[in-house]
Queue: 2 jobs
Job 1
Amino acid sequence: MSLYWRCNSSAICSLLALDEALQHTSSIQWGNRPQVLVTIDKLRTASLNETGKTTQQKIEDVKRLTTLLSELSSFASLPRQISIVLEGRNISLKLEGNRYSASNLRASSQEEVNRMNAIASKAMNELSAKYREALQTAKDQISRQEQLLDGLANALSAEELEARRAQLSANRDALLKANNEELKKQEEQLRAFAKEMNLEVKKPVRLGRKKKLVFIRR
Amino acid sequence: MLLRIASNEEQSSIYGPGLRLVIWVQGCTLVCKGCWNTQFWPRKGGHDRTVESLVEQITKTEEIEGITILGGEPLEQAEAVHELILQVKEAGLSVFLYSGFEHHELNDTQQACVNASDIVVLGRYVEEKRDVNLRWRGSSNQILEFPTERYRGIQFEERGECEVIVEEDGSIRVLGYPDPELIAFIESMN
């Protein structure tokens, strides 16, 4: 009979979404959370603490934050190396292509290698799922915040309204950019694999926001 | 009338002629060795849909020339499947039916499903006879029949096809008859 098969697969293109995903993943944690994420935390806190600030200062805070957020949502700005903790072991992951992978794992036996591979595979599946959830949740939050902001239109000054709308818009742009980069990378990988396997790829069909590629083996 | 279904896919191009809405039913007791869709074996999974709601979805789906029913084992829900086939045909669409049963195993209702369909693939999936170069079939023992005039005489090229669907959130599904290497590759894309 025919196959109906599903797997979790995500290329990690947004460090922000990866950070969010790691906070909700039980089997894998940051070994050394990149400093830039700490900086973002501070900027976020600063932009929320508006006491005693002029509108101009608030706008500047938001601009700094959104600029950094936008930069970080680019695949090109991902750190070349990150460190994670898996099952109590510190593992260094290097960015190769659009995947982080460990190349310096040491194990005492083949059984240990197999065991670690199984654990890593499970953890990465969990991380992929959480990563996608984090991206979707972030998009939903932005939509909700925009609706809230619309309701506050009469209570805020024109400058404040503009600054907050700009922040939401920049965050949305950053997320969409990350999402689009991820999808583009995935398609590139799939096409490269098809070429390697000598499979024909029919012109892709777009249905709403999803894309279908048909692979043909002759 | 209720049909227990596992999933459906609108506008697929690999399960028969043209674009088709594909329905995987839930539940199969044939348990073929090497079956790819073991998640569709238990009758407990999936969800119930009324035939009427399915027909409504089908007739609203743009650009399709028919439906394909597979599973699971469609003919283990033959009454509902028969009703679905009749209503879809009445709407002017074609029906492609998959079943793991062979002719001599069919009861009257199951035979009526086969007779009313425009294309059928019959026979168990046999792992030892798996052939990824076949069109619309998974193993070489499965037979392709054209019970009605609609597609009789149709020219089609034998070739393996699979559909890779990249969802908006980056998750990937593969439908059809992929090479094992493709599955391994997608799994490695995590």
Job 2
Amino acid sequence: MSCLPLADVAPAGQAAGWITLGVILVAGLIVGFSDVRRLQFRRIWALSSVCFTESMRRRVLLVTPLAIAGLVVVSQLQQASDDQDAIRQTAKFCVFASGMVVVITALILACTNLPREIENRVIFTIVTKPTTRLEIVLGKVVGFARVSAAILLTMGIFSYGYLEARNYFRVENVRAQLESLPADAAGRATLVHYADRGFLETRSVNLASDFNIYARPPANGLHWMRGSKPQYFLVHFAPSEAERGVLAAAAQAGAEVDLLTTLHLEWMPLSSAEQTDAERLRFPPLHPVPPQPFGPSLLPHGTHADKPSQYASVLSLRIVDGADRNLVAPEDLGANASFLPVVDSQNGSPSGVLSLSSKAVGQLADLPEFFVDVASPSPGVEYGAGPLPVVLSIPSANGGKGMIIRPPLIDGEPEPPKYSGRPGRSGIVLSDAFNSQTLAIYSFRGASPSIGTGQTVAFQLNAKIEKTGDPTDSNQPLSVAEIQVVNAHTGKSSGPLRVTPEINRLTFVDVPAEDVAGGDFDVQLREMADGQWLDLQPDSIVLITADRSFSGNLFKSFLLLWMLSILVVSISVFCSTFLSWPIAIVLSLMLLLGRWGVAQLGDSLNPGVGHTVSNEFFSRDPTESKVVSSTVEALAKSLRIVSSIFPDVSRFPATEDLQRGVSIPLSTLGGAGEALLMYGASVVIGGYMILRFKEVAP
Amino acid sequence: MPTSDHAVQIENLTKVYKDFWGRDKVRALDGLNLTIPRGEVFGLLGPNGSGKSTTIKLLLGLIFPTAGRASILGQPAGNTAINERIGFLPEESYLYRFLNGEETLRFYGRLFKIPRKELNRRVPALLDTVGLDAKSRKRKLREYSKGMARRIGLAQALINNPDLILLDEPTTGLDPIGTREMKDLILSLKAQGKTVLLCSHLLADVQDVCDRITILYAGKMQTLGQVKDLIQVRDITQVQARGLDAEKVRQVQEFLGGIGVSDSIVTHPTTTLEDLFMRVVRENSGNGSLPRS
């Protein structure tokens, strides 16, 4: 359900990045066309060789033994849960340490070099040769890129050797364990797998394109959410300017604006836990008719009169941002917003109507996007949602046709709601499948399965297990999950496949290849063990498409680090063209970490932050509230835009895939290359233009 | 208009240094006009802060003029392309201290795109010319004495066989032998038809090698002309003769008195300390020649 703060502005920021590069490129060509014509790679290489030689003779490579010593100490002291975890942590440490060393070294070298040459006037003997300023800047960048490559080569060779050595000893350890393990012991299959193939595995995988949690498998176009369970669904709205104008007018006129919900209801048997909770909370029963405020509209059209023991069906509605924060204060939303009586939808008619307050409508008119969060506290009631479960209705003032505001269209269809559950320690919780119903569905579209021997394809399950009691207690029953693959084209199902996920370990599941034919299929996952639940991420289930070499993946990781270091060098050289080296280091760090820093603010900068702030601090005075809201909104927007044109260092993910044993896709390398080209070229040209007009004689 | 008959042409060249806020701080050069023909050794003289180095920096494009213009070998000053034909020795040897002498020359040679084969020939020859022996050329520059640093600095200025050589305080840090070698080298460059612009405050050195000089003071040209014309004392006549004893000296003075010269001085001329130093070193060197410093 989260909507990353920079996700919205990333495409715009990317476009802005390319436009900025284009503008800088044109400006650079206008300013330095003659220098471009004189550009000679031999001179650039000569200048870079001086940078490289200087760094080597200043014994820069001594940082690598220091890093290696630290790395060995840390990896020996690590608290790994098992052998696989130990190897993975070591791989992560290796890449992380290499990244830190190369980035810090590149930053310091590149920031200090040019100011020092200007200060000690070595630059005199360079610029009085037929060397253009463009060649000087490029020479510095290439030179320190070569230094980075030398550092990474040293660290890479050590990392590979160290990981291979650790893997060797760990595999020997596993083999020893296997000799003493009973043949039917739990987890033996996994140990055999590691004994055969080692821990340094790398695979190519396909990720699911969507991931939802439902109360039961979707059927007949309905997706189900269970009341009182920590389930909910989010309906996304992004009203157009015109729609927001109508909302604003309705708010001013005090006209009625309704949130209409259209849901199917079913009363299901209660689990003992649900029954206990309902009684503890004294939840109003369905019969007799509960007193106000549940109201006569709760009457279920007589269709459920045979369920005297069941509970009333109510919804809890909120209007939230991508970070699940209220954009409209619950008390302003409208009467009964958190206890909205609903009835079964009949002939498409709304099953629950929430009349929004004028204040809430006014606030919605200011929001370019928001989500309607729909949940239910009703024990045992399941809600079936069609493709359009929530709309905003604005009746016409003169009795004519009003306006309906719907979710935005995707491929001509309304954007489907996102079904989810409460967050656990390591992901979204998939609770035990009461009545074998609650499930997570990973939807794969356009996947490219690789069929192995035996006409099967393999899935990898990586879910954290939560359970009541001590999770490390070996006497606890094993977690049991059930996986079923349903082909989206043929409807053919693999049938339920039982697996026993283990804490912090991968689990592999083989499925007949025909079930994934065509590449469009859904993987249904249920937790079957009582009192246990799985914490799921969007990549908790992936389709393995190929086995890859670990060394190749390690190389790709270091290649990403090298590209990152070139970006660091480019920015540092740029800053050093107009600043003294200490200030250049500070500015380089700010440019490199600015976007990351804004991202750390989380969803605080999402649209709606103004309302959140004004609601919390200035809710009593509407005028003041409006001013604060719009000011905060504008500041947040400015910060998002500024940060979006900073380089995105998250596009150089060197550790994540390596640590997960997943082959780094070429698209990741391409994305890193794109970021490097976009920002690196821009700052290099910018640095050249500054140096072109700089008097280098102090 | 600048013409390529002149190595350097300067028209109304002015440089005003500004402070952080863009206000005028120092007028380092004020409307300098100067022309240096090809093949001349020209001296730029003046006390510290007179504008000598500023003029050199402007000619090389290290700083930009506030007003006026300058051209070198027919091209605007600061044009990167013309640097192919210029050699520059800064007032101190601003070189990469972690490279050795040979690496330094090879590096600068590569900036001129001199082919490797040619560099293999030119680098040792230049090191010989400036008097750096085989042992010195393999040492890092940070280990060089000041004199050795000047020599390698001069070698890098000559690596491209330039038409115009700008030497900023070329003899600073050199011992008398090195100074003499530097002056001999300047004269040999002149003999090769090259133009040399040197700036110095060691007037004796300038006097020995320069065809013309200008003296700058407070950013302005104070005088300009041939060295021999500028230093000539026109109202005093010097007669030199060898082998006059005291009696003959008295007779010469009587004769001068007889023709109405009342304040004549007849004395023995002195040599320069440099000549004395050279003679003593040469006589004690064993083989009658000067050792390399």
